[in-house]
């Protein structure tokens, strides 16, 4: 018996990755809400859990063992996949080449795009006089251009074949953020097709930013 706690914020794409993965695997979890607009992520109590001062943080306790805390979403995704192997679908393909492809696509989003469009970076570029939406739009478009080229080598219904994998789990919250800043996903037709199919997956709907208990009422579905 495992107890799972997720430190999350409804708009956070990195938190959404873990919400979606946990729903895909059918693992129940207790959310703890961290309001990024109130800067709760920088509080000493949150930094005691995640020293990076960011969300998500995943805490898992197996039985009576000491709980483990994972403060990077990609590491947490792989941990969930490895530890809950027999629960729900695998989040990584079994073939090593396809596994590398899934990690490559996930990294385009999680390592190349999200860090430079994150809230604390946007605050800084705003202070320097840049237009935050334009900054995000250009960087997201560059990432999606690369995603579109590479995903053609592996796409089926989803990014790597017909099973939702870590690449899709990173892509879909990024696509929500992209549309918010005016990126036209139609410029990336293979990726857009994958996004639309992902929107039909129940775990994705459950992890959607509009469906969370910390989503302000006026933004809910
Ligand atoms: N590499 C980290 C990134 C975490 C991250 O940047 N989280 C964002 C939300 S998606 C955050 O907490 N931003 C708050 C801030 O910038 O102050 C991960 O993948 O977990």
Low-confidence parts = none
Please tell me the total number of domains: 2
CATH architectural category of the largest domain? Up-down Bundle
Measured as a percent range, the helix fraction is 40-55%
What does this entry look like structurally?
By secondary structure, the chain is α+β, with helices and mostly antiparallel strands. It has 2 domains: 2-88, Glutaredoxin, CATH 3.40.30; 96-204, Glutathione S-transferase Yfyf (Class Pi), Chain A, domain 2 (Up-down Bundle). 50% of the residues lie in helices and 9% in strands. It contains 9 helices and 4 strands. It has helices at 13-25, 44-47, 73-83, 96-117, 119-127, 132-151, 166-180, 189-198, 202-207, and strands spanning 2-8, 30-33, 57-62, 68-70. Strands 2-1-3-4 form a 4-stranded mixed sheet. Helix 1 (13-25) links the parallel strand 1 and strand 2. The structure holds glutathione. Glutathione (GSH) binds at residues 12-14, 36, 41, 54-56, 72-74, 110, 118-120. Glutathione (GSH) binds next to helix 1, helix 3 and helix 5.
């Amino acid at each position: 018996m495992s107890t799972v706690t997720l430190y999350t914020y409804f708009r956070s794409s990195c938190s959404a990755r873990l919400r979606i993965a946990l729903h895909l695997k059918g693992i129940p979890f207790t959310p703890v809400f961290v309001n990024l607009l109130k800067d709760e992520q920088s509080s000493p109590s949150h930094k005691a859990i995640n020293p990076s001062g960011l969300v998500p943080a995943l805490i898992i306790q197996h039985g009576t063992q000491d709980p483990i805390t994972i403060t990077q979403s990609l590491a947490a995704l792989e941990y969930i996949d490895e530890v809950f192997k027999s629960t729900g679908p695998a989040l990584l393909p079994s073939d090593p080449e396809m596994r590398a492809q899934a990690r490559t696509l996930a990294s385009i989003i999680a390592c190349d795009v999200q860090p430079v469009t994150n809230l604390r970076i946007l605050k800084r570029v705003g202070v320097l006089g840049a237009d935050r939406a334009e900054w995000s739009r250009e960087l997201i478009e560059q990432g999606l251009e690369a995603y579109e080229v590479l995903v053609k080598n592996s796409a089926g219904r989803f990014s790597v074949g017909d099973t939702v994998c870590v690449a899709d789990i990173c892509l879909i919250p990024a696509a929500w953020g992209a549309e918010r800043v005016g990126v036209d996903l139609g410029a990336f037709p293979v990726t857009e097709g994958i996004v639309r199919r992902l929107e039909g997956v129940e775990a994705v709907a459950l992890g959607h930013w509009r469906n969370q208990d910390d989503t302000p009422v006026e933004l809910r579905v």
